[in-house]
Write a structure and sequence with these properties.
This protein is an alpha/beta fold. It folds into four domains: 3-194, Nucleic acid-binding proteins (OB fold (Dihydrolipoamide Acetyltransferase, E2P)), CATH 2.40.50; 199-228 and 656-697, no CATH class; 238-453, P-loop containing nucleotide triphosphate hydrolases (Rossmann fold, 3-Layer(aba) Sandwich), CATH 3.40.50; 464-620, 3-Layer(aba) Sandwich (Rossmann fold), CATH 3.40.50. It has 24 helices and 23 strands. It has a seven-stranded parallel sheet, with helices on both faces. Strand 22, helix 19 (580-587) and strand 23 form a beta-alpha-beta unit. Helix 8 runs antiparallel to helix 10 and helix 9 (254-268) runs parallel beside helix 10 (285-298). It is globular, with a radius of gyration of 30 Å. The two termini are 35 Å apart. 42% of the residues are buried. The chain binds adenosine-5'-diphosphate and magnesium ion. Magnesium ion is lined by residues 285-286, 433, 561.
């Protein structure tokens, strides 16, 4: 059971921290209870009963408790499972809010947390009479069992190495590691329980700091290493400027200008660029990336453009071609679905340096692809891959090319093949459309420099977002017909939850049939989902782009990047089932031209959180606000799980709650790596970081 939670060794257990503390050093006598307060009491069950257990209700479980000084009623909803546990005679510790029930003339606790106490248990002192830690149960392993386990295990805490450099620890007045762990697992009488419950005690601060510190040290090391590597010092000649001017179809916004300046300055450096280009959907990142591409190309280098999906790759291909072909550059597309012959042909073009821009999915990196002279890799929408994949991706260094082939000349001396055999690392520009709160950015993208486009192109009208119940769908179709009569186009989207692309596909197919045959028999409707062959996907997309399709019914394969300015209506079906960020991305597919655009969220039954999400979307178009709300509504657990968000598995630290500690840890980590003090055992630190990263994130390769 412990293993199922990743608790494999003693150290894991030591870092399995209580989520709450309860002050049982002064539990209240029942007669002293006051309505409205939260209290912990110890009492014995006198009577217990399950009532109202019928077809639809899971029943109430009521218990009458007494401690010799008074009585208390406790009630749990859906309490059937308690019947076998809470039998008369059982002693309980209860924690909850006290209310006074006027009808029954008694003090009650509704839905209290409780723990069964054992009589005459020697270890009972562990669970009462002091501030006790409360652990989240794992399967049948209750908080009580954890308390016992940790009570024993914490004895061994002195065996742990405290790797945090001593001078940092002293300067910040942090407790030692052993003492911090001892405190969190068995707080003493003097410890401030309020601070503990807010995760702000010195001990918790130290542990949270540690976690961020080692993460940021690893990122800083990566960053320093990358900074020191040989890169390409691109030149910004007059010709580069002219080509950029020739390419630009419009005047860049001042945000775009500022950002391209940052990128150009970075590209001039003799070290590789590792930069994140952040901006809300539709803020115009691609054209900025295209300008960076021109800098590389005019210096005689090739550019790779990597997209997360084939559709997006195809779209970038079209866009880059339209921008670049009349400058005399060749742009090719290489995806997993190209045929073997095509691939061979394309690879030859690339290897010989005939193609200046190569667009592809990330598979481009895995395939045996050789660039003649790769100078810049543009990676789009990287956030979908998560930090670990991104780090491995860069670590593999595929864009840097494989090591030069070594051969021997006649005298037997080593020669490298190719004129620039020892290749410099290319510059890397990562584009993301998910505006993420700063603290999260520091963690996911802690090894990158960040440029932000915080302004939309001029003439955009804010998208109007409306919420409609499924029962009123006819009105939506009427509205849609009007927009199409004006010459506009629309998307109808079925978002995909996790791995259920198939369901979304079925829903999309049904809707496609319904719209084609019943609602809009005279219009041209297209269908797009992930299971279609690549050519069909591309064809549908291209027809939509050319305006030959009025309504495109789709799954979330269109979530990122697709750019059709004439599309003004985004209808999202089953909107209650999907995350804020996802819907915001989808909504970003409209509002890209000068026409007023609309996003219509169609829902069925909703719970409170879904209702709150829909409310947020209707009220705000601001990606940053939406990202914050997303974190808040989903809660740290889900938002920060490695799987969903790509944030490294943080066990104690919570990016949302602990932003200030993160900033502190980050600056300490950067200072340490930038200028290690003479006496610091840097090798020891690096070794620790490597072990820590290996354990925590599953791979090393950082220093
Ligand atoms: P992002 O990738 O950031 O979501 P895009 O680069 O796809 O945004 O740009 C969105 C749309 O805005 C595109 O149609 C693009 O041509 C247009 N656009 C970008 N920058 C400008 C600008 N400065 N002025 C006018 N239109 C712009
Ligand atoms: Mg884009």
């Amino acid at each position: 059971m412990l293993a199922s939670r990743g608790l494999l060794i003693i150290q894991d257990l030591l870092y399995y921290l209580p989520f709450r503390y309860e002050d049982r050093s002064n539990t209240k006598e029942l007669r002293a209870l006051v309505p409205g307060e939260k209290a912990t009491v110890l009492a014995r069950i006198e009577q217990a009963s399950l009532s109202n257990f019928q077809r639809r209700s899971l029943g109430f479980f009521d218990a009458t408790l007494s401690d010799g000084t008074g009585t208390l009623l406790a009630r749990w909803f859906n309490g059937k499972h308690l019947v076998d546990w809470l039998i008369p005679g059982t002693r309980l510790a209860l924690f909850g809010k006290i209310e006074y029930d006027r009808r029954r003339l008694a003090m009650v606790m509704v839905q209290p947390e409780f723990e069964i106490m054992q009589d005459d248990d020697e270890e009972e002192q562990l669970h009462t009479g002091r501030v006790v830690p409360v652990y989240e149960a794992v399967g049948k392993i209750s908080t009580r069992v954890f308390r016992q386990l940790l009570h024993r295990v914490v004895e061994q805490v002195d065996l742990l190495d405290d790797a945090l450099p001593e001078d940092i620890r002293r300067r910040l007045a942090l407790p030692g590691l052993a003492s911090a762990l001892r405190t969190v697992h068995s707080p003493q009488a003097g410890d401030d329980i309020r601070l503990l419950n807010e995760f702000r005690s010195p001990a918790q601060f130290r542990l949270i700091f540690d976690e961020f510190f080692w993460l940021e040290c690893g990122l800083a090391l990566k960053r320093t290493k990358a900074r020191k590597a040989d890169g390409i010092p691109f030149e910004l000649s007059e010709r580069v400027r002219e080509q950029i001017k020739r390419m630009l179809p419009f005047k860049p916004t001042s945000a775009q200008k500022r950002v391209i300046q940052q990128i150009a300055d970075d590209m001039k450096q003799p070290h590789p660029m590792n930069r994140l280009l952040q901006g809300d959907v539709g803020s115009g990142k691609t054209i900025v990336a295209a300008q960076a591409a021109i800098i590389a190309i005019e210096n005689g280098y090739q550019v790779a453009v990597l997209a997360p999906t084939e559709i997006l790759a195809a779209q970038h291909h079209v866009y880059f071609r339209s921008l670049m072909e009349n400058l005399g550059y060749t742009v090719i597309l290489l995806t997993g679905s190209s045929t073997a012959r095509e691939k061979l042909q394309l690879k030859k073009l690339m290897a010989a340096g005939y193609a200046q821009v190569v667009v592809g999915t990330h598979a481009l990196l895995q395939q045996d692809v050789d660039f003649h002279k790769l100078g810049l890799a543009i990676v789009d929408e990287q956030h979908r891959f998560g930090v670990l994949q991104r780090l491995t991706l860069f670590e593999k260094g595929a864009p840097a090319g494989r090591p030069p082939k070594l051969s021997r000349d006649r005298e037997g001396a080593a020669v490298f093949n190719g004129a620039d055999a020892v290749r410099a690392k290319p510059d890397v520009l990562v584009m993301t459309a998910t505006p993420i709160p700063r603290t999260l950015a520091l963690t996911i993208y802690g090894d990158l420099d960040v440029s932000t486009i915080d302004e939309l192109p001029p003439g955009r009208q804010p998208i109007k977002t409306k919420h409609v119940n499924e029962t009123a769908i006819e009105k939506v179709w009427t509205f849609l017909a009007m927009q199409i009569a004006k010459g506009r186009q629309a998307y109808v989207v079925y978002p995909v939850i996790e791995e259920s692309e198939t369901n979304a596909m079925k829903a999309a197919e049904q809707m496609y049939d319904h719209l084609t045959h019943e609602v809009f028999p005279k219009l041209s409707i297209g269908l797009l989902h992930g299971k279609l062959p690549a050519e069909e996907k591309e064809a549908a997309m291209r027809r939509f782009q050319r305006g030959e399709i009025n309504i495109l019914v789709s799954t979330t394969v269109i979530e990122v990047g697709v750019d059709v300015p004439n599309a003004t209506v985004m209808i999202i079906e089953q909107a209650e089932r999907f995350g804020l960020a996802q819907i915001h991305q989808l909504r970003g597919r409209v509002g890209r031209g000068s026409h007023q655009s609309y996003c219509i969220l169609v829902t069925r039954k909703m719970n409170d959180i879904a209702r709150e999400r829909i409310r947020t979307l209707v009220a705000s178009n601001d990606g940053f606000h939406i990202a914050e709300m997303d974190m808040r509504l989903r809660g740290p657990g889900e938002f920060f799980g490695t799987r969903q968000s790509g944030v490294p598995g943080l066990r104690i630290a919570n990016i949302f709650r602990d932003g200030d500690i993160l900033e502190l840890a980050r600056s300490e980590a950067q200072a340490l790596i930038a200028a290690p003090p003479e006496h610091a055992d840097l090798h020891g630190v690096v070794r620790y970081i490597q072990e820590h990263w290996q354990r925590q994130y599953g791979f090393v390769e950082i220093g």
